[in-house]
Amino acid sequence: MKKLILSMVLVGATTLAFGQKKVVRSAEKNFKNGDYATALSEVETALQDPETGSDPETTLLKAQIQLGMFATDSSNTMENLEVGNNSYESFMKAFEMGDGDKTSGIGKDIFEEDIPGAPENLRPNSVNKLKNVAFDKAIVQYNEEDYEMAYEFFNLAGEIDPTDTTIHYNAGFLANDLGRTEDAKRHFSTLLDIEGYNKLNAYYFMIQILSTEDKDPEAAYAMVTRAKEEYPSDKDLSTYEIQLLLQLNKMDEAMAQIKTALESDPNNTALLLRSGYLKEQAGDMEGALADYKKSVEVDPQFFEGNYYAAALLIEKAREILNELNGLSDEEWEKRSESMGKEANEYYADAVTYFESALEIKPEDTGIMEILFQIHTRLKNDAKAEEYNKKLIELLGPNWMEG
Question: How confident is the model at residue 377 (pLDDT cuts 50, 70, 90)?
Fold first, then answer.
């Protein structure tokens, strides 16, 4: 009797297992016929059985069914993205259940190479096809200016393949543009770890994010230092380094870097401007003025060079007048004419640079006000009135009250 009962149990178990395998075969058939909803329902049932559920092939089939649903749905919505994410999770679970080898067994099937554009019947239902489908969806959404979803599909493709530089650059670029700086940093950081890849643009983005968005100049400077180890001759990195040294108030280091950079690029207007600024901060007014003037000689349309040169000339004029006002009456009588003349010469020189700056930015009322004041001091009444009329036109008749 016990043998009979045991035999009946074994028959029942065998029948149940056979029945679940039949469900798997049905799911495979419906998958191949494109009836993904039925196939998914069947494979979910098979996964509940101890025998078929423990077989990585069953989980791989689920991943492939989900891939089919993902690929054939052109809505490209968040719901569609979730199907793609679920497919990736199923692929990875099947890989973990297998022997963990990408070159043999189930691992070879999961990671089989896909050729985009090949006839559909020749493409494998692998995780690499999932990556390529996600990439294609990203491009479609980007072209439709749906940048949020374009990023999401690029991100999925990037999760699948951490070595694909095109995917991670696109994902990082879009994330940064969308203000998703943490996502952007994650993708650009991935690029920085890929050997043989030209990482300059990734470094530029990382430095900009750390400095501007994160407001962390220390981290940005550390990133510049790392970048310069790989690209020591890149001029843009030298410029970033100087900017960050200035932010960190490391004036001596900044000046040293500027001198080195100017040796190889003596006509770089941005470097000349920063060199002048640092010299001005250190009290070397003549050296600063020389750098500002040289930047304008290199590029007469360089607004900052014109403006800084003019501002420093005014400062020199004011220093003379302040010194004059501090003299005793007797000394003032002796030196007022010569010192006043010297101050006026600086004012006159400043006019030249301010007028050049105004030609570059013709609506800058701040410069117009300064020119009005200088011409008034120099008794250039016609020029002063000319700027007065422009300011009345732009700011109203009571502009002086402002």
Answer: very high
Helix (H, G, I), strand (E, B) or coil at 261: helix
Q: Where are the alpha helices (DSSP H) in 265-380?
A: 269-281, 285-298, 303-325, 329-360, 365-377
Q: Two tokens at 64?
A: 């492939």
Reading the block at residue 170, the tokens are 């696109």
- What is the reported pTM? 0.71
Supply angle C-alpha 338, 343, 344, rounded to 5. Answer: 95
Rounded Cα distance between 80 and 317, Å, is 69
Q: Which positions ≥6 away from 36 have C-beta within 8 Å?
A: 30, 65, 68, 69, 72
Match 């075969």 to its residue by tokens.
Answer: 25
Closest by CA to 105, choosing from 60, 50, 44, 64, is 60
Query: Which position has the token pair 């990439």?
Result: 135
Residues in Cβ contact with 74 at an 8 Å cutoff, skipping those fewer than 6 apart = none
Q: Rounded to an integer, what distance in angstroms lies between the CA atom of residue 370 and that of residue 314?
A: 10
Please report which helix (H) or strand (E) contains residue 45, including its range: helix 36-47
pLDDT at 197: 94
With b meaning 16 or more CB within 10 Å and e meaning fewer, what string describes 155-184?
Answer: bbbbebbeebbebbbbbbbbbbeeebbebb
> Residue 84: CB partners within 8 Å, gap ≥ 6?
66, 67, 70, 130, 133, 134, 153, 156
**187 contact partners, CB below 8 Å, separation of at least 6:** 155, 158, 168, 169, 171, 172, 175
Q: Are 220 and 244 in contact (CB under 8 A)?
A: yes
Radius of gyration of the chain (CA): 36
Nearest to 59 by CA among 99, 129, 106: 106
| CA-to-CA dists, residue 201 to 48, 191, 237, angstroms | 49, 10, 11
Can you tell me the distance from the alpha carbon of 189 to that of 119, in angstroms, rounded to the nearest whole number?
A: 36
DSSP 8-state assignment for residue 49: S
Given this model, what pLDDT does residue 5 score?
45
With cut-offs at 50, 70 and 90, classify the pLDDT of residue 268: very high
Provide CB contacts within 8 A for 288, sequence distance 6+: 276, 277, 279, 280, 312
